[in-house]
Amino acid sequence: MRIRTIALLLTVFGMLVVFNSAYAQNAPEASEKGKEVYENSCAHCHGVEGRGDGSAAENLLPKPRDFTRGLYKIRSTEAGQLPTDQDLFDIITEGMPGSSMPGWETALTANDRWEVVAYIKTFYDGFKENENPPKQITLEGKIPYSEQSVEIGKELYVELGCVECHGNVGRGDGTSAPTLTDSWGFQTWPANLTQGWNYRGGFDTEDIFKRFIGGIAGSPMPAFEGDSFLNFGLTAEESKRLIELENKDEMTEAEEEESGQFYEKMDTAVDIALSIKEGAEMSTTQMQTYNDAMKVVYEKSWHLANYVKSLMPEERPEPAIGNNVLRSQYVQGELPAFDDAAWETFEARYFPLVGQVVIEPRQFNPTIDGVHVKSFYNDTEVVFLFVWDDRTHTTGDETDETTQKPLEDALAVQFPVKVPQGPTAPKPYFLWGGRLPVYLWHWKASTPDQVTELTAKGINNAETQEAQGELQVQSAYTDGQYKLWVKRTLKTDDKKDLQLEPGVFVPIAFSVWDGSNADVDTKLTMTSWYTFTLEPVPSSRRFVYPPIIAILSVGLLFGLRAFVQRRNTEDV
Amino acid sequence: MKTYLLASLTLLLACCYVGIVGITFAADSDAGEMEMLIFPESYKPTSGSNGGTISGVVKFEGDKPEMKMLEITKDVEVCGATEKYDEALVVGENNALKNTIVYLIDITEGKDFDKAAKLEMDQKGCKFTPHVQIVPLDTRLTMLNSDRVNHNVHIFSTINTPVNKQQTKNRRRMPLAGVKKAEGPVSVKCDIHGWMSAWIAYVPHPYFAVTNEKGEFTLEDVPAGTYKLGYWHEACGTNNESPVEVTVEAGGTVTQDFTLKLK
Asked: Are A487 and A383 in contact (CB under 8 A)?
């Protein structure tokens, strides 16, 4: 029975593959149908004429693609080439994570999606002029993932200058990150390479490899296509040797000659590569030289792709819900300090953030993905470690044009003032409370060692508490990541503060501001209510009562036996 | 699940909001299309001998504007060693306007390019030199990196294939493939150092000149005849609407000056 089902599924699947591949490279001629689907589903963002200027475009960042320039980010094709039809179809089907482009797999039939592909191509004449199919990046010779490959890739990451935009450890916090613009002059951020789930074109090693070789058209991401590659034309060993020579303060005559030979070899290879690009015919030997040089480029690129792959977790972390609530771990005695190794002993809970779009001013284009939180408590105090990625360290040097308030990075942790009793009891409104008030810890990058306690009855109705509790705070910003450590006593004398006790499930929520994304006041990223609890310590009495009960029971039994025996003896 | 609900709710609200507001979208690039050079449909190199010369001076109309200093945001030891100014408008003594392209719009026959000329654009102190570079078709432009820092050469072509290549710090010379179609000027940028800016014009004939510090230009070996003389300047635009007509005699010299104002 099962075999028959599998066979049936396989047949259906096979048919689907055949059906799909019939479409594989050739979208149909542009049709009325394609226009209709486009205007119904795509034009709101991409504009009726495909200029990326639909009515919704104003509030979006990244901006919707302007189809009239033939610049497509996600392609399987080489630098400067147009995408294949399949590339366009895949993007429409799967959408672009981390942007406003949704996947249309369920909303549009495959047929409609192919019609849209054909229609989109009418916006750029280059598709008509190019009769040859675009040249695809070959994925042959893939180097499998290994520690060794990752190590080589890591070196290349620095040598090729990836750090300039993507930062030392890939969080998109490079020193060039704040000034980047796309080909239309709009601000654009380099990818945070540690968040694979936000990669527009997927985060498989193959995807990374293709983005690297082919570049991301219309964005500042260059194509590392060959002749511009570090020491193009040299073998990996020769390249290493040349870098070694170049780093010397002074070269001997022999070394001068050696490096001269390397340069000659590189010039020859570059000349061949450019001639090929210019359409010149090459001899077999020249092609051999070119192919050898490209082999090295491709090998290095696989190493680099493996390194980038190593920077991210397998999947986006699960949000802290269900069995996954934020549990503060009990410790006896002193709570772990900011840099304590104890923080590394367990996994953080993850709270994904979304833009606040309920109240003006709104944030439609959040730049902070989420907050990672860990916590410990002892008999009198609780300590939290909040960790979040932010590409820039903004401390209020610039002011917001409309509000005249300083733009700075900040975080607020929100609790109810009174914990709702029972699961059905109402919580305060998630947006900084309402009829029921909330209690907040407000931290700002300009005062990094300080947390202000607030009470709020709405996002525009927050007050700094008159009696500020004695919270201990420490924070740091390193390589595109904030770490904030906050310690407070479980109980306070202030009626406006939240009082904590083990075993109680407490609502918790977060608000985060990214100053460089013009986050100010209600323009912020946030979460709804999640749950936090001081994980109750299994009582130490468990070591006392059971033995006592056992001893008592045994004693009772013996007593009973003695009693019965005595009675029996008396009877006799 | 709650997160997804919230996320979809947010998205829904966002959509509603966008729908309600429905403000017409106005991009930054509202200034309109960049004005371009005009090229002849075809050009045939014949002999340039016995031609005349067109020369002149381009001046800026109005008070000499103050140079806008650029903010150096990274690699300060290399890029900030000297002060950098925005070269979109360089006005010298006597209001001389630098970096203006002056060219013949409608020439179809004349001399060939000087094949021996070295075509180089340097990246030195995180600045492109020259600021405006004429590149003949099918000719390689070599990008130099005189800095010990990484640069990327980003050429925003729309007719030819756009180029975006990393020129790492140890790559002294990086030649770029020649292009087939006349285009320009196109913007050149380094995304790593956002303030770096230059222009490249890919041209089909050699009758193009870029004004120097004194605002001077010279077009030599122009076959005798009457031509439309055009100009292009980054901040002052073009005279595409009403080019000047000049008549050149064999062996003669014609002078044609221009006075440009901001567009």
From this structure: yes
d(CA A17, CA B107): 57
DSSP for B31-75 reads: G-SPP-----S--EE---TT-EEEEEEEEE-SSPPPPPBPP--S-
Q: Which CATH architecture has domain B34-260?
A: Sandwich (2.60)
What are the tens digits of pLDDT across the range A299-311?
Answer: 999 999 999 999 9
CA distance B81 to B75: 10
Three-class SS string for A241-282? HHHHHHCCCCCCHHHHHHHHHHHHHHHHHHHHHHHHHCCCCC
Distance CA A487, CA A474 (A): 9
Which of A179, A206, A177 has its CA nearest to residue A192? A177
d(CA A123, CA A265): 44
Q: Which CATH class is domain A322-537?
A: mainly beta
CB-nearest to B166 from A80, A178, A224 is A224
Find out whether B140 and B150 touch, Cβ atoms under 8 Å: no
Tell me how close the Cα of A231 comes to any Cα of chain B, in angstroms.
Answer: 8
Domain boundaries, chain A: 21-129, 147-310, 322-537, 541-571
What pLDDT is recorded for position A339? Answer: 96
Q: Where are the alpha helices (DSSP H) in B197-250?
A: none
Give the one of B18, B140, B150 whose C-beta lies nearest to A161's C-beta: B150
The average confidence (pLDDT) of chain B is 88
User: B2 contacts in A (CB within 8 Å)?
Assistant: 319, 321, 528-530
Q: Tell me the whole-structure pTM to 2 decimals.
A: 0.87
The pLDDT-based confidence of A537 (bands split at 50, 70, 90) is confident
Q: In whole angstroms, what is the distance from residue A60 CA to residue A45 CA?
A: 9
Q: Which residue has the tokens 């179609």?
A: B181
Amino acid at A391: R
Pair A451, A471: CB distance under 8 Å: yes
Q: Which residues of A touch B30 (CB under 8 A)?
A: none
What is the rounded distance in angstroms from the CA atom of residue A134 to the CA atom of residue A139?
A: 15
| pLDDT tens, position by position, A52-91 | 999 999 889 899 999 999 999 999 999 999 999 999 999 9
Q: Looking at the partner chain, which of A165, A185, A221 has a beta carbon nearest the beta carbon of B29?
A: A185
Alpha-carbon distance A51 to nearest alpha carbon in chain B (angstroms): 11
Instruction: Report the 10 Å Cβ neighbour count for A385.
Output: 20
Q: Identify the pLDDT of residue B32.
A: 44
Residue A370: closest CA among chain B residues belongs to which residue? B3
Interchain CB distance below 8 Å, B165 and A225: yes
Tell me: pLDDT of A456 over 90. yes
CA dihedral over A495, A497, A503, A509, signed as positive or negative: positive
At B64, the pLDDT band (50, 70, 90 cuts) reads confident
B1 closest CB neighbour out of A221, A225, A321: A321
Task: Give me the interface pTM, i.e. the ipTM.
Answer: 0.85
Residue A17 pLDDT class (50, 70, 90 cuts)? very low
Distances (CA, A) of A37 to A48, A91, A208, A339, A409: 11, 16, 31, 56, 42
Query: pLDDT tens digit string along A372-431?
Result: 999 999 999 999 999 999 999 999 998 988 889 999 999 999 999 999 988 789 999 999
- Domain A21-129: state its class: mainly alpha
ω before A416 within 30° of 0 (cis)? no
Task: Give the chain B residue whose CA is nearest to the CA of A230.
Answer: B168
Cα–Cα–Cα angle for A559, A560, A562, nearest 5°? 65
- Given a cut of 70, is residue A4 above it in pLDDT? no
* CA–CA separation, A100 and B11 (whole Å): 9
Query: What is the residue extent of each domain of chain B?
Result: 34-260
